[in-house]
Amino acid sequence: MPPSMRWSSVIPSPQAFTKQICPNAHLRAFSSSPRSNAGRTTRQRRLMFQWLDSQGAAFRDPLPGSTNYLSAYDNHGVLRRVKAGRGNNTSSRSADEQTASDELSTLGAKSNESEEADEASNKKTGGDENRLPPEGRGDRRPFPHNKSFFSEEVLSEEFREEIWRRIMKDGMSVREVSATTGVEMRRVGAVVRLKEIEKAWLSSGTPLARPYAQAVMSMLPQTQWNSAPDARKWHEQINSLPVHEATTLQIFEPTSESRHFTREDAAKAFDENLLSTDERIPHPEMVAKEKDVLAGLPAELVAERASAREDAEIEAKQKQQDRIAKKQAAIKKVDTGRWQFRIQEVKVDDAGADGRGPRGTGWRYGTPLMDRKRGQIKIPTRVD
Amino acid sequence: MADASSSRLADNPIQYSVDTCDLCIMVVKIRLARFGRRKAPFYNIVVAHARTARNSKPIEVLGTYDPIPKMPTDGEGKPFKDVKLDSARAKYWLGVGAQPSDPAWRLLSMAGLLEPKYQPNRPVVPKPSTV
């Protein structure tokens, strides 16, 4: 009986085998298991190593200050925006793969060695030959097969701090901050609330997950704060009309041809209490100002009218608050141990001569309850 | 003796027994009338004759009392109970001798119209010894 043949004497060790089929494989610790059809290199396997050496190589050392999404690189592993930028600047130079990767590597090295270069690429101030061109919308597709998904920008740390400072320190209104910074009002509110929590944690000594936040922020596209109002980039659309539930119905509204059917009429057609679109948008004051500008009024008059409108609004709001405060002050509050009793003054005469007036206080006598009538549905239709 | 009795009759020509007095002078009370649903009480604070049914039509409705506590909308502070009261009319009825029931007394004393009957935190005054 011949001696039994050892498996390793037929097929080399897994590492050696991998090295044999792919010379660059010494870096890879994975895929080292021997396979039954080990002698054959499949197409998928070849393509995988091809990808790892070309496009995938860019992700081995991710570019700092950039999102590093798959869509930002072409099939040869060259940043699309670098290629496009070079095509525009020096058309004479040949845009071959080798020089592109050279440039890429120098860029990477530069960003690694100095913090300033990192900052520069972060701020996307392109123009200099050695700096990264700004990231376009096409570079912000994390899923190459989903062409319609773009990674949207988030507010930078500095931007959020500025919003908080304007609201809490300068005492500006949310609407004003939204209009000047180009951030939606709901987001302004959220930023201020989260900043308040962060500051409360800082003062109470609760540890913050700073490294985590920095890592996440470094991977996301950001809107940076710019102190110059003209150079400021708007973060998002701030004056888009929210969809009201009442307007989702399809309504056939017959009307005469001669009738001037306005937005107010359209709102009435949907619901009796619905405001028109002009009043439902988040920033009607911006529209009013723009209308003044289009009417050809001088800039001083436009500003004057805008501030007058603002003052009128503040006054109306103050009046409403005063009315509520007066109503609250008229209610006597008595604190017993467990409850607070709120004693409100009423007038017996409000019930009218027969004591059955609609403004009278208390349960009414001699009138049947609505739910005792015929045809009243008692099954609740909504739960609050 | 007979003279004396006749003179007394002359001084007070109408003599009432205790029973007839109750029938002629109706006691007016300030009390609560329960409305609302099962497990959802709601009270009218009413002025009514003492011998009428609880929910019968009263002389006057002074206000309401909602005993179900509600949470404040801002979520801060104690749960509250709503009381509505015409204190001017309540004062008038108290002035002409209307007798509040105990729960009505409690509510009226909160509104500052009466001295509270039951004060759990009042300091106890020691009674002088009778011996």
UniProtKB/TrEMBL annotation, chain A:
It comes from Coleophoma cylindrospora. Residues 87-104 have a biased composition (Polar residues). GO terms for molecular function: structural constituent of ribosome. This is Eukaryotic mitochondrial regulator protein-domain-containing protein. Signal peptide: none annotated. Residues 120-142 have a biased composition (Basic and acidic residues). GO terms for biological process: mitochondrial translation. InterPro entries: Ribosomal_mS45 (IPR021036). Residues 84-146, 350-384 are annotated as: Disordered. GO terms for cellular component: mitochondrial small ribosomal subunit.
From TrEMBL, chain B:
GO terms for cellular component: mitochondrial small ribosomal subunit. GO terms for biological process: mitochondrial translation. It comes from the Eukaryota. Keywords: Ribonucleoprotein, Ribosomal protein. Pfam families: Ribosomal_S16. One of its GO terms (molecular function) is structural constituent of ribosome. SUPFAM superfamilies: Ribosomal protein S16 (SSF54565). Belongs to the bacterial ribosomal protein bS16 family. NCBIfam families: S16. This is Ribosomal protein S16.
